[in-house]
Amino acid sequence: MKKIWIGCFFFCCAVFCGGTGDRISDFSSRTVVKNCKSNYGLYVFSYGRGSYPNQYLNVEEEDGSREIVYLFYLIRIPGKNILIDSGFVNDTYKKKFGFSSFERPDILLKKCGMDPKEISDIVLTHFHFDHAGGLFLFPSATIHIQNHDLDLLKKQSYFPKQSSYLNDLKNRNRLHSFNGTHSLVPGIQILFTGGHTPGSQAMEWVVTSDKQFLITGDECYLIQECKNGIGLPKTAAFSLKRNGDFLEYVQILYGKGTKILTLHDPSILEEGEEIFPGARVLFLF
To answer: For the CA atoms of 256, 262, 268, 273, what is the dihedral angle to 10 degrees?
Structure first.
């Protein structure tokens, strides 16, 4: 639990908003957002949907299934365009998991006015295909991943010449693997969680003392259940204890007003403002 508590720092908002809180504003008070290049902030993209068995989700039901969405996030701050996860493009996985409404992550970004080459960093919450399978689409990005999950990622084949691509990233010092918690920039912490996979991680963004976000990775699939303390089942957890420790941290942050976000909850697509189908702005500053 100590590794997760490190994430509970409150950083000065001067890094992002010039030291004046009144520059942080809700998107609803701004001009309608037409793309992702006009403003700094937090954006979410939905690149597919599919039915998923309840036995692998953080829900009380064990039988049946429900629809989940497949998301990734973009944080735009001065000097950085940060993706949380990268999606995937592999047709085999689309068929295996019954994807519908699929769109390539790089195409979604282009529609939003972003060149994939402008992505500076990708935080991989874990090594699974729907999170790490699209990292090659963003050739300028530095990848941030826990050592445990990098070892597992190296054993996968999500895209052609994946092994060579990872080696090339390493040779160009763009593969940042580490253990524990890492400060990406002041105010943005990558938190080791280790519940869903051995190297799972979450991201905490403290914009100001009263504006914070926590992106949980797949330690939680559904937000309300997560806030209610419903953790992963054994079928979806590497460590039930670590997952439980993380949920305790989620509840503490939620009680302090932090916005909790996951990578699969359809309710997120009702948040913020739609830019176009598949892209939404959640927060601007």
So the answer is: 80
pLDDT at 13: 40
Low-confidence ranges of the chain (pLDDT < 50): 1-25
What residue type is 31 in one-letter code?
T
142-146, strands of its sheet edge to edge = 175-178, 142-146, 121-123, 80-84, 65-77, 41-53, 279-284, 273-276
Distance CA 55, CA 72 (A): 23
- Tell me the chain's radius of gyration from C-alpha atoms: 18
Terminal CA-CA length for the chain? 32
For 136-183, how does the pLDDT look when each residue is reduced to its tens digit (9 = 90+)? Answer: 999 999 999 999 999 999 999 999 999 999 999 999 999 999 999 999
Amino acid (one-letter) located at 44:
V
CB 122 within 8 A of CB 85: yes
* pTM (two decimals): 0.90
Q: Are 227 and 251 in contact (CB under 8 A)?
A: yes
Helix (H) or strand (E) holding 207: strand 201-208
CA atoms of 192 and 12, how far apart (whole Å): 23
- pLDDT for residue 18: 40
